Amino acid sequence: MSNRILKLVRSEELRRSKSDRLIANYIERNMVELPYETARSIATHLRISPMTVGRYLRRLGFDGLDDLKNELRRGHSNPAWQVKGQVDRLQQDIRDGKLIAGLIQEQVDNLGQIYELTTSPEWQQAIDLLVSASEVYVAAYQNVRGIAQYFASQLSYTRPRVQFVDGLNGTYAEVLDGSVEGRVLFLHDVRRFAAKAQPLALEARRAGVKVILLTDEFCLWPKEASDVALIVPGSHGPLWDGAATMTAVMDLLLSNIIVLLGDQVNERVELLTRLQDTFGDFEA
Hints:
Layout: H1 3-9, H2 18-29, H3 39-46, H4 50-60, H5 65-75, H6 87-96, H7 98-118, H8 121-132, E1 135-140, H9 145-155, E2 162-164, H10 173-176, E3 183-188, H11 197-206, E4 210-216, H12 222-225, E5 228-232, H13 244-261, H14 263-279
Parallel strand pairs: 1-2, 1-3, 3-4, 4-5
Helix pairs in contact: 3-4, 7-13, 8-13, 9-13
């Protein structure tokens, strides 16, 4: 935790107005979580405007929220898997039914934002790349690795030459060796962000591989490291981050691709079903 920042927000100079005190108290009480906030999310919590938050941060000595985030990240790490509220209060909330109701409402709100994403130009660009690519490579790390592997497996039922890459060979050569044109890397990364994700995305772009990045609102590098960025809401709840929002986006991408490819998907499923029957891995 930055003692310098705490000293600043506790100073009288930065607590003169009501909005000053609101923002100062919020920063002090949420220092651990602050690197993963946005100006909009802070403003929403405090019921003030993002511009008010921005002006306060400039008075604090930072050129916007990203500048403050970078200092906080250097001084403190924050797991994505972390209970963010007081345990006794959360236990009471779950007994009262408030906790589950709040989490459900957060999921509903996130799905509303996902709908907006599905109508965006970025969504159609991602669909076009996933359909037309010569090869699709899917990569992910840590707590989203499992659902990304699920996506790669499901996508392989809609089109050929789909592979999940884990980087265990130390090179990602299957993606980066330049032997095939028209490759696409579909990279999944959410906070707490993986150290390998941004270097892989940048290296892929240098190699001529198109990069689709599925990430959350806390990511600081989507534009510089991807050709298409699909940005979903991050977790603001009292418990650790869940995968429901990411999984919903993946399922909607798959549904869109299935409809677009039509009979091609049916033909591929028939082929794969015949192979499954041949090798006997599935019950009748």
